[in-house]
Amino acid sequence: MAINIKSQASIQLKNFNDIFSASSSEGEKDVITRIPLNKLHTFRDHPFRVEMDEAMEELCHSIKENGDVNEPILVRPHPEIEGEYEIISGHRRTFACNELKITEISAIIRELDDYTATKFMVAGNMHRPKIYPSDKGRAYAMQMESLKKAKKEGKIKTDKRTDEVLADEVGETRANVQFYIRITYLIKEFQDLCDSGELAISSAQPLSQLPKEIQIEVYEAWEQYCKPKLKAEALKELYNLYKEFGEVSQNDIQVALGILQRVKPKAKKVTFSEKTLSKYFNDDYSAEQIEEIIENLLDRWAEENGASVSGHSE
Predict the structure, then answer these.
(1) Level-2 CATH architecture, domain 3-129
(2) For an engineered disulfide with 118, which of 146, 221, 234, 296 has Cβ 3.0 to 4.6 Å away?
(3) Where are the domains of the chain?
């Protein structure tokens, strides 16, 4: 049985309305209805994890005390299964009700296209007590793809870049949006380190630009050598080496991890005393002329002895 929002005084919708608005797109009032949990499906490729942590235990306790969720979940008719629904916002509340063996949940049903559903799904989950960086990255990547599709289909008219539109929608800078999306390019082990705080987002960026096979080598070396701190600047240097040469060595990886130090060759400096030079050049020669003559003689010597003029051995 549907219940008009105005007549359901015991259900608080303030935060929910801030995110989704209390009215449907047609201007009609949303209604709250009860939906069996076995008719609900997780949003496709839902990027946010749902787990039994301290915040979930508190949510379960709240629902158990009140007998229902404080805010109804938001769903849409399932795109493929008639009579069933896809959760837009409320995955944690649904999980908690399942844990408590509650068979029905209060919900608002909306007809939403894929773009709007994805936008609402991301917005609704940004109010979670805890959001992992990799979850946020996957969510932004999903919303980015949804935006691209909507622009291509003419549902969104804008001259802005897609990542700029996304940044406006989620309240982040464009750079931050790209940073979070880059996390999704990391191997799972590094994503986990990012989520635990052992890998800073600034360090994750250059790592994410390396091929997965090199990331695996870096991770294995990191584990082997007692898990040293992963520093952004050193990892940027490693990426620059890969970008220049198309590969990196184990030594390069160990240098990036601070296990080895790259020894720079000492600059060779040769000087001639004025007494020595005066044996071969009289006062009519300028310093530039002397330098040119010596360089020509050295070139001739290098050619006769098969040495590299550039200074690098073959």
Answers:
(1) Alpha-Beta Complex (3.90)
(2) 146
(3) 3-129, 132-184, 196-256, 274-303
